[in-house]
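INFO  loader      accepted 1 record
INFO  loader      residues=256
INFO  predictor   begin
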Amino acid sequence: MREFPASPGVPQGVAIMEDARTIVFSSSKSDTPSELFAGDLTTGVATRLLTVPQPYVPVRYAQNGFVYSHGSRLLRADPANGKTIREFPADAKVELFATSPNGKWLAAADDQRALYCFDLTTGKRVAKQEQPAPPQAREKPLKFTYTAITIPNAGKSVFAATDLGTLLQWQPAANSHRTLTNIRGTARSLFLSGDGSRVAVGGNHRDAAVYDAALGDGIFYTQLADADFYISNVWLSGPQFILTTDAGVLFAGTLD
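INFO  predictor   done
INFO  writer      dumping tokens
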């Protein structure tokens, strides 16, 4: 077990590199820049890579590197020195982003409610979805915000939760989207199973759920007393379902 002090503030994300020895993590407070570090799991030594002049900058794993956000840009960087390998520009400030578990695809949402899909290998912007229509048909579009986003290894779909209590599925190749299902409250975290067949949702009513990623049917639902408000992280691995809460509690079980 290694301990890496995070300063300032608290960690905002961790990316584990392919060598299983190096991690990259970020930390900040609400009023400080974000500091990005590389940690060596063998020696326990952490080295500052770079400073990003905005708070709450997360990091995500990408093939042969990591991704972080800065304003309207997403940057893939080298974990050895923090130098930029490639930039992925959005058309407005990036609010959320996620990489596929295999580090080949990048999905993002900006503050104008547009979705993006990038190929991390080639740097190509695969598609952009301009302000997807709200889940209900109305004369005037409803205002909504994306609260969580995820993308599977195949990169064929992007799943995004909104503060209207909906889970949307966007297919970049066809540039089409649909409401996969309605969820309770607001999702704070999303996670896809390794084969992309199930999507787990961590909500803000001390609840978590698992849905069929193709049909939207509910597979599992639970509500926990050991959370103040929301489920902070969810993971799926085969029948195993793991989650953490904002009260600092981790649960592990099966979907049986």
